[in-house]
Amino acid sequence: MRDGERPGSPAPTRASWAAIASCHSAASSTPRGRTAFAETARAQAADLLARCWPEDGRYVDRPGARPTVRAFCDAVEIADLLLDGAPPQLPAAEHVARLRALQDAASGLVPEYGQAQPSAGPAAPGAVEALFGWLHTHVDAWTGMWGSPTPDSGRLQMVNGYYRLTRGSFAQFGLPVPYAERVIDTVLDHARDRRFFAPGRENACNVLDVVHPLWLCGRQTDHRGEETRAWAATQLAAALTRWRPGQGFGFGPTPDGSGPGRDPGLQGTEMWFAIVWLLADLLGLADLLGYRPRGIHRPGTALTGPAGDPNQP
Question: What percent of the chain has pLDDT over 70?
């Protein structure tokens, strides 16, 4: 299935057309039809990366923050998306050498600066089959998820766990998720929780937790497709206004202090670029952006499993 294709390919709703018109009105005149947003981001990418490269020569998420491996990886992906190459602060070979020097040779994992190397052995034979067996036998048929809402945060943690779990399992192997229609019901109900999705309260983590399951399940069914596209249209229009010239995107408000906050930085920029692509793809507009996430938030499969296709988008 190509980007932008959904089961049944229904026409966009009135709300979807509003976002489509907004994106088309901002589209550049280049043959590739990329939006002004993507062109602006490319023009400012070098400045965005330079502000996060302090004198000690290690990337930070934003000026004044401490250096992290996460910031290093975010810089590499942002440069790949916007500049079609490595960040200009170092030659590509030096970026590779620095990352490989941090990597544990046995597990392939990379610890944060100053932390011990992680310990991880090879997976036992049949571990992948056992994992999917457990997931299929323990999923809640009513919600399509693993877990339950809580009085304090509603469906927040349940939906967050679903996103992390399915992105690392079903999505990686290109396998259909169980009870896709129930998942869509649960996620759309969560998206109406004003504690997390009232205007000005959205952050990258919470929006990604919603858009990825809707995108993933939308490849199996068009259940409540008009509502999904209406939500995506509203979120896309809001997201494009959050770009800060020369600085990128801020992660967003985090009342519990669990994220980098509202100030623009590398993590927020990398995550919102992935979110914008997923929202645009739900609306059939991804091609206008002129980029496709290729790192941790890539939409394609990474592994081949039963009925899995590593080339499936």
Answer: 84
Burial class from Cβ neighbours inside 10 Å (0-12, 13-18, 19+) for residue 101 reads: exposed
Residues 6+ apart with CB under 8 A from 51: 62, 63, 246, 247
List Cβ neighbours of 93 (8 Å cut-off, separation of 6 or more). Answer: none
Q: Distance (Å, rounded) from C-alpha 159 to C-alpha 165?
A: 10
Closest CA to 295 of 84, 60, 50, 81: 81
Burial class (CB within 10 angstroms; exposed 0-12, middle 13-18, buried 19+) of 40: middle
- Compute the distance between CA of residue 274 and CA of residue 293 in angstroms, rounded to an integer: 6
| CB-CB contact of 221 with 179 (8 Å) | no
| Ramachandran quadrant class, 149 (left: phi over 0; alpha: psi -120 to 50; beta: rest) | beta
The tens digit of pLDDT for each residue in 147-180 reads: 999 999 999 999 999 999 999 999 999 999 999 9
First to last CA, the chain: 7
Question: For the residues 278-294, what does the mean pLDDT come to?
Answer: 92
Q: What is the pLDDT of residues 63-98, one digit of tens each?
A: 999 999 999 999 999 999 999 999 999 999 999 999
